[in-house]
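Support request from a user on the community tier.

User writes: "When I paste my structure tokens into the form, the page sometimes reloads and wipes my input. The last time it worked, I copied everything first. Here is what I submitted, just in case something in the input itself triggers the reload:"
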């Protein structure tokens, strides 16, 4: 297995009984959040009723917070069951600077590559940490799990 470069190993938004919500570890895009299952499963079809209930609450509140607190108006949600990792849903924010890559899901890989090559600097790292702190504060006030 390939060793991942973790740019943001400690940027956790929230950890609950069933989920770990954090900034993507590898990609320096503020607001690129991951909702990962604590349990080792691959699919939403494997969720228990309690996990499903908590997941839907977290997802909805994260999206509202991204829009209202972070001013992120559009988000792509994606999940792959063929990954080597446990279940995780990615909340991929869309920013104006991404328009040059297009608006289809195929644009995400070039955007990610661009961010890795051009956005690994202290200003962006500070922005990522600030973004995580804002959404963490928002989520901790709302989610009582």
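"...and here is what came back when it finally went through:"
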């Amino acid at each position: 297995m390939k060793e991942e470069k973790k740019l943001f190993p400690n940027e956790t938004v929230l950890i609950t009984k069933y989920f770990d919500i954090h900034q993507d570890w590898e990609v320096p895009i503020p607001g690129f959040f991951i909702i990962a299952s604590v349990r080792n499963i691959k699919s939403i079809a494997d969720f228990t009723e309690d996990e499903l209930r908590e997941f839907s609450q977290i997802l909805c509140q994260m999206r509202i917070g991204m829009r209202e607190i972070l001013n992120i108006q559009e988000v792509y949600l994606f999940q792959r069951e063929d990954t080597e990792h446990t279940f995780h849903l990615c909340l991929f924010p869309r920013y104006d600077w991404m328009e040059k890559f297009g608006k289809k899901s195929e644009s995400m890989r070039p955007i990610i590559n661009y961010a890795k090559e051009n956005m690994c600097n202290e200003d962006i790292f500070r922005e990522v940490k600030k973004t995580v702190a804002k959404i963490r504060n928002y989520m901790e006030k709302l989610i009582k799990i």
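Agent notes: The reload is a front-end session timeout and is unrelated to the input. The first strand starts at residue 12 and ends at 15. The mean pLDDT is 92. Escalated to web team.
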